[in-house]
Amino acid sequence: MISKAFINFMSRRTIFAKVRNKVMNTYASYDLIKKARVAFEAERQEKQEPHTVIYFHKVDDPYSALTVEYVEKIASIFDVLLKPVLVGEENPETVHEPTLYSDYCLRDVNRIADYYGVAFSSQTYPEKNLVNLANSILTVADESDFTSIAKKVSKALWSHDKKTLEELSTKHKATPDEALKKLEQGNTIRDDKDYYFGSAFYYGEELYWGVDRINHLEERLDELGLRKDSMNKSVCVPNFKAPDKLESEYKFNLYYYPSLNSPYTFVSVTGVQEIKDSYPVNLITKPVLPMLMRKMTIPNFKAKYIISDAAREGLKKNNPIGKIYSPLGKPARKAYSIFPIINEAGKGFEYINELLQASFYDGINIGEDDYLKSTVKKLGLDWNIISKKLGSNDWKKVLDDNLKDMYSGNCWGVPSFKITDANGDNPFYVWGQDRMWLLKEEIYKRLNS
After folding, report:
1. What percentage of residues in the chain have a pLDDT greater than 70?
2. Considering the domain boundaries, does residue 193 fall inside one?
3. Neighbours of 403 (CB within 10 A)
4. Would the CA dihedral through 186, 189, 192, 194 be positive or negative?
5. Domain for residue 188, yes or no?
6. Cβ(244)–Cβ(412) below 8 Å
7. What pLDDT, on a 0 to 100 scale, did the predictor assign at position 379?
8. For position 286, which CATH number holds?
């Protein structure tokens, strides 16, 4: 049997680009997604099964504490059968930096909860005995009132309110073995759906993670005509405070950490440009190596979710993924090698933008000399000067320093961002294109504090 390590090593090799590109293009294809949806609905109708939405709930997952507040709304607005599934620990293959991941999740939910109308202020994870008690309660909760009980349990758990949990357990309590079996069953269901966390919805062979993806689920159910006649409101709309455009003589530093093999980074570029154009920021681009070139591994089922999810995010944000040519390996190294000198010329962001457009829309190998030459000329730079750095190693220290800076903010994935005051003080890090709105909120807050 070929080892996972060898498979992942091969996935990073340039010689396997054709296979890798074919897989990525398949996962990103909206036409194939539409065909799969039609096939699923035909099979569902033939079996005379209801429209079933599964919700995966993990009691000590901060994101589940947010998402569970919206489950009943989905069930009340749409004509669906909602099935809650209690799950336990995440699939360890999918968590690359466990400590950073846990710390970041808690910090992130504390930041965004108020925008979603949810009270959440816990600075620490609940103790294990309380987590066990919470799982015990929900193990025996009836499916019909699981969500209402889960909301009470969640509030008590994240408030570290042992008394309330004990009171709830007088009516609902399972033995440790029963709770363990329930969690194992839930994890099996979750794994069979090619998912790996809590706080997610599943419908028709597609996954929708957390409050950030409820809008996609809502659109899917609307396409099927499942909205109840009297229900016209959106399920989940965050209450943003920052305006679309903000002017100020004072400028903040906005640091952008992209990588060349990240579909989410590609999706983020138009949003970065929009912030650059409409907010008082000095944009500083600090690329990092792709995770696979940092010797991290991504299971196929997670890669599938990432690419397909980024594709639908791109469509929604008018920045669709087109034809993909993954730059992993030699193409990325070659393209990175001239980044420092291009960045010194003031064209770092524009260069990264061009590379991402080539890799995730035009299907171009960015490691070809002719492509790099034409791109440099397009940026208005002198190829004779820039090409002197082609294939050099100067870029390695630059990207390594960028990675260390990103990690110092508990961010390990891309795209990540950092805001500082003009002098570099008061760093505010966020991870992911999902949190670009939070960058605006932070700038707006600082200007009005």
Report:
1. 96
2. yes
3. 20
4. negative
5. yes
6. no
7. 98
8. 3.40.30.10
Cis before residue 415, ω within 30 degrees of 0?
Answer: yes
Phi, psi of 420 (to 5 degrees): -135, 165
Strand 252-257 relative to strand 281-285: parallel, antiparallel, unpaired?
parallel
Furthest CA-CA distance within the chain? 77
Q: Could you please report the per-residue DSSP string of 34-82?
A: HHHHHHHHHHHHHHT---EEEEEE-TT-HHHHHHHHHHHHHHHHB--EE
Judged against a pLDDT cut of 70, whether residue 12 lies above it is answered with: no
Instruction: Return d(Cα 59, Cα 403) in angstroms, integer.
Output: 32
pTM greater than 0.85 (yes/no): yes
- Separation between Cα atoms, residue 323 and residue 307, nearest integer Å: 12
Q: Are residues 279 and 353 in the same domain?
A: yes
Q: How far is CA 404 from the centre of its chain?
A: 21
Number of domains in the chain: 2
Residues 378, 288 within the same domain? yes
| SS3 category, 420 | strand
Residues in the chain: 449
19 located within any domain = no
Q: Based on the fold, state whether residues 162 and 201 are members of the same structural domain.
A: yes
Instruction: Name the token pair of 368.
Output: 């070809």
Do 422 and 291 fall within a single domain?
Answer: yes
User: Would you say residue 60 lies in a domain?
Assistant: yes
User: Residue holding tokens 């455009």?
Assistant: 245
Domain enclosing residue 98, as ranges: 50-223
